[in-house]
Design goal:
This protein is of the alpha/beta class. It is built from 9 helices and 5 strands. It has a 5-stranded mixed sheet with strand order 2-1-3-5-4, with helices on both faces. A hairpin with a 2-residue loop joins β4 (about 150-155) and β5. α3 (about 45-55) packs across α7 (about 215-225), α3 (about 45-55) packs across α9 (about 240-250) and α7 (about 215-225) crosses α9 (about 240-250). The longest helix has 14 residues, at about 90-105. The radius of gyration is 20 Å and the shape is globular.
């Protein structure tokens, strides 16, 4: 929350003194919340390390024979939402997807029209439908495993990502739904690895973030910089990344 938001949240109403135990509880609760760092707080070295650790690698490496090459869309991304859960989450998914072109200006992304082919499918399911959806819609294999609490599968090659499919669980709480939505959709755009050292990122299964953080916005803007091409390896990008990180940070507000 920025200082302007804090100011708007204050009132002139006088409050009675609070018990010390309650004040300590509030302080502890606030300390447990994930920090909201702005783009200017990250060094170029932190951003480059985060980029390398998420873009060059795969959380589940058996899914690709090119885990250490850049994966990104070079064609427009067209989403289709498949609402298969008891609770209709379509509006929440659409609201998040609508943020992406604004936060990643180089990304051409929107919902697919009814008669338009989608290349990024999002299946929203209840937990009971998770495994059947992964086996039937993602792999077309009745023996396939479904690792994790939600997942995304990406099909890619040297010319870029050709398709992504995410499965998001709806009925295990708001935090898990939001976390799965943000992480799996963003990973479906290319940065497919997790790293426990990335404290300001959803690309870290131990973090408590459930939003598109400033750190992750910079990483996605780095990936979708025109100088970053599908199939590039780490050595090809190394001399460019300091400039790309600087430019990406300026694009994130």
């Amino acid at each position: 929350m920025d200082s302007r938001s804090r100011t708007r949240g204050l009132t002139s109403l006088a409050m009675p003194p609070l018990p010390i135990a309650f004040m300590l509880f509030v302080v502890g609760l606030l300390a447990a919340l994930p920090a909201r760092a702005g783009p200017e707080s990250f060094t170029a070295e932190e951003l480059i390390e985060g980029f390398n650790n998420t873009v060059f690698g795969l959380e589940y490496r058996s899914w690709s024979w090119q885990p250490y090459l850049v994966k990104k869309y070079v064609t427009p991304v067209r989403f289709r939402i498949h609402s298969l859960s008891q609770r209709n989450r379509t509006a929440a998914v659409e609201a998040f997807l609508a943020e992406l072109p604004r936060k990643i200006p180089a990304l051409d992304a929107r919902l697919a029209a009814p008669d338009e082919e989608a290349n990024f499918n999002i299946f929203v399911v209840d937990r009971a439908g998770y495994l059947p959806t992964v086996r039937g819609e993602i792999y077309a294999d009745e023996t396939a495993e479904a690792p994790g609490r939600c997942l995304v599968r990406v099909e890619s090659g040297r010319r870029g990502i050709t398709g992504s499919s995410a499965v998001i669980v709806s009925d295990e709480g708001e935090f898990l739904f939001r976390r799965c939505l943000v992480e799996e959709v963003l990973q479906g755009l290319g940065p497919m690895n997790d790293d426990p050292r990335l404290t300001h990122s959803v690309f870290n299964d131990t973090s408590r973030h459930s939003r598109f953080t400033a750190f992750d916005q910079i990483l996605l803007n780095m990936l979708y910089d025109r100088r970053v091409r599908p199939g590039m390896d780490r050595s090809e990008l190394e001399p460019l990344l300091p400039i790309i990180a600087r430019d990406a940070r300026r694009r994130v507000q």
